[in-house]
Amino acid sequence: MAAKRDYYEVLGISKSADASAIKKAYRKLAKKYHPDTNPGDADAEKKFKEVTEAYNVLSDPEKKKLYDQFGHAAFDQTSGTYGGAGGAYSGGPFSGGTYRQTYGGPGGGYTEYHFEGGNMDDMFNDIFGDIFNHGGTGKRQSSGFGGFSGSGFSGKNYGGNSGFYGGFGQDSFRSKGSDLNAEVTVGFDEAAFGCDKVIRIQSPDGKGGTQSLKVHIPAGIDTGKSIRLKGKGNPGVNGGENGDLFLKVKVAEKPGFERKGMDVYTTVSVPFTTAVFGGEAVVNTLYGNVLCKIREGTQSGTKIRLRGKGIVSMKDPQVHGDQYVTVQIDVPRNLSAEAKQKLREFEAVSAGRARTA
Question: Which of 201, 224, 230, 235 has a 20 to 30 Å separation from 285 between CA atoms?
């Protein structure tokens, strides 16, 4: 049998570590290696037992004193140094007494650990609350944790390892299933006005086929936003609630339209003469065509603001962004000789006015 590692090495602490440091080190490692967070991982289970055994000893002043003096031999059932076939009693790491009764001969049989007194629920919440009781990751059944009850805790461990692990029955917990993530692409108008889409999601293991889900796309959603489908993630453990499915949205482009937040940007081309003399131009919007007034002497690059013609707010359906229209002036091509002559006359007149100004 391989030699046991030093308990201080197991917890990653120095021999001068105080009770708080010992407890903190154990909390971290217990969460990391607990079987419920590492299902099917034999190595993690082995390490969990190892750190729990180390904590059982180092967290108890009397046990720690014996360990510092005699090492692992202090707890060797065959040596008689601590405990024995008739049982032994000492203060325990749970602020109550610990009675250990050993059955069978050296190197065999099993050991029962009875934790009498103390508040086991407090210890459970202190060490494992973040794993099973907080953040929506799991729920503890009202019947207690692997044997925890009002009268104390009793756990059996076969094979000579620490009896503490025996009480952590995985079947005693309901754990929420893990969340899933996927992506969905929606059209520009679908994102602007909202829609219902049917998507197909592949099962996590790739063996269960695909499932079809009807998803509501809220009006105003933008690229990068996520839609949460409650209960559509991985199934829970031991009757726990299912995880959730988070759909990350990508909005497709729309020719002629650019979106920036709730605002929309487009362009409109107007004839040279309209820019010079003023007039009207038809502008495309998400809500249909509108007739915009072009002021006399409008320059290329001028922006026209159409209030309320942008994207609706996801928080308030009464609020909309705006549409900004950039005016582009068409330069005439293939002019007739007469038209060219008129433009030259216009150029000459304009130059004369500039010289006299």
Answer: 224
